[in-house]
């Protein structure tokens, strides 16, 4: 027997397994529901732009040849769309990989990293893996960002500040003035990483991308975006980062594997980015359905955080893992939160109208069952 436990670094033992939830196949095997509403990973119910149908893998060199290691065409398309230089763009095998690349490139043991909490666990995990010490800024009681505490924490220089805006899992966000305050409060040598996985959903009133605030500033920063959410390409694994300057980007670039973004992902992302109409359909549907599901949760007397993402975070007033397990029997997959202090919270993605209906009726079946169950106990 090998002694794997001694073989790996101490930091690896500290990491919790990623809470990715059950796959459709696992739910089918366990419960065999008539249909499944997968609302645990914030995927897009409309999928990608129909323009992707014209990509034919077999007929071209997409599969036979290595992809462009520099991703030139895609980086240029992104640069034009965001009005930055293509030399500022780095591509990742999902934006997750970019979080890992940044942490590996920048963090030394015992470095201070500040993040918001509850958080996207990978913001903490990759930092912890490098031996950094992570400090969290908890949301306020109403689930909004505690900007005052955040400012205080980063007034002491940290190597890196990393957070998502809108926040995942919470959905709440830093308004333009709040984001400006946070950027101003961070030491000029602190790397600011803003993960904007849901920026396309949030765009509009009361939201500004950090790209607009940081562009042209002389401090280190990276803004992360993904094609997995509003562009509906989670299965292809592609994300990108906008980096403060070309020199920093090329140093980060050395840390990635040379062919990290596959050829199909690259051509698909170019097509997806060009279809503004499809994006608008996705965002409009998510906004109206989010409102409908939010009203339902509030009617159940469950506190729900305000959200600009395609998901809602609510307190189910009981053990979230049991709640989520109960919903599986109705074919509904949600994500029970597992971070300390939030074990009664559930994150549910906003799906198609049908999927959301399935979620709501499953919740009603579950809660009415609970009521009859507990009254039976009370009676007996
Ligand atoms: C979904 C999500 C990601 C992951 O994006 P990929 O590009 O699929 O790796 C990154 N950050 C946050 C906050 C997310 O919610």
TrEMBL record:
Question: Which cofactor(s) are needed, names only?
Answer: pyridoxal 5'-phosphate
Q: In the record, which positions carry N6-(pyridoxal phosphate)lysine?
A: 229
Organism of this sequence: Phyllobacterium endophyticum
- GO terms for biological process, alphabetical: L-histidine biosynthetic process
Entry EC no(s): 2.6.1.9
Gene3D superfamilies linked to this entry: Aspartate Aminotransferase, domain 1, Type I PLP-dependent aspartate aminotransferase-like (Major domain)
DNA repair as a keyword? no
In terms of superkingdom, the source organism counts as Bacteria
Which parts of the sequence belong to the Aminotransferase class I/classII large domain?
35-362
Q: What's the encoding gene here?
A: hisC
Name-wise, this protein is: Histidinol-phosphate aminotransferase
Task: Output the Pfam families linked to this UniProt entry.
Answer: Aminotran_1_2
Reactions performed catalytically? L-histidinol phosphate + 2-oxoglutarate = 3-(imidazol-4-yl)-2-oxopropyl phosphate + L-glutamate
The pathway is: Amino-acid biosynthesis; L-histidine biosynthesis; L-histidine from 5-phospho-alpha-D-ribose 1-diphosphate: step 7/9
- Name the enzyme group at the top EC level: transferase
Family designation:
Belongs to the class-II pyridoxal-phosphate-dependent aminotransferase family. Histidinol-phosphate aminotransferase subfamily.
GO molecular function terms listed in the Swiss-Prot or TrEMBL record: histidinol-phosphate transaminase activity; pyridoxal phosphate binding
Keyword DNA damage (UniProt): no
Going by the UniProt record, its keywords in alphabetical order are: Amino-acid biosynthesis, Aminotransferase, Histidine biosynthesis, Pyridoxal phosphate, Transferase
- Oligomer status and interactors: Homodimer.
């Amino acid at each position: 027997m090998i002694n794997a436990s001694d073989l790996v670094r101490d930091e690896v033992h500290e990491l919790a397994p990623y809470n990715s939830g059950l796959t459709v196949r696992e739910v089918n095997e366990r419960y065999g529901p008539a249909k499944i509403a997968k609302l645990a990973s914030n995927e897009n119910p409309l999928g990608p732009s129909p323009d992707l149908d014209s990509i034919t893998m077999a007929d071209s060199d997409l599969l036979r040849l290595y992809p462009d290691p520099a991703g030139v065409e895609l980086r240029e398309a992104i640069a034009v769309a965001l009005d930055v230089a293509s030399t500022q763009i780095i591509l990742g095998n999902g934006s997750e990989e970019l979080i890992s690349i940044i942490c590996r490139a920048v963090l030394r043991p015992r470095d201070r990293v500040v993040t918001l909490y509850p958080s996207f666990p990978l913001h903490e995990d990759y930092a912890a893996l490098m031996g950094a010490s992570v400090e969290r800024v908890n949301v306020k009681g109403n689930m909004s960002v505690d900007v005052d505490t955040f400012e205080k924490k980063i007034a002491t220089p940290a190597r890196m500040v990393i957070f998502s805006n809108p926040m995942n899992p919470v959905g709440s966000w830093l308004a333009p003035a709040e984001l400006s305050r946070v950027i101003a409060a961070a030491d000029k040598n602190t790397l600011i990483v803003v993960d904007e996985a849901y920026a396309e959903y949030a765009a509009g009133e009361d939201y500004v991308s950090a790209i607009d605030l940081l562009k042209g500033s002389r401090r280190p920063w990276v803004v992360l975006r993904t094609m997995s959410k509003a562009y509906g390409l989670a299965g292809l694994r592609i994300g990108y980062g906008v980096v403060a300057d070309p020199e920093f980007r090329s140093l980060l670039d050395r840390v990635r594997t040379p062919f990290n973004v596959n050829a199909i992902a690259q051509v698909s992302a170019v097509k997806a980015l060009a279809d503004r109409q499809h994006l608008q359909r996705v965002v409009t549907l998510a906004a109206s359905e989010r409102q409908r599901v939010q009203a339902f949760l509030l009617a159940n007397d469950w506190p729900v955080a305000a959200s600009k993402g395609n998901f809602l975070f609510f307190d189910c007033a009981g053990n979230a893992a049991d709640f989520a397990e109960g919903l599986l029997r109705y074919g509904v997959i949600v994500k029970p939160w597992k971070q300390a202090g939030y074990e009664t919270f559930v994150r549910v993605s906003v799906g198609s109208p049908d999927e959301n209906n399935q979620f709501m009726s499953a919740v009603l079946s579950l809660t009415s069952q609970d009521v009859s169950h507990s009254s039976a106990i009370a009676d007996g």
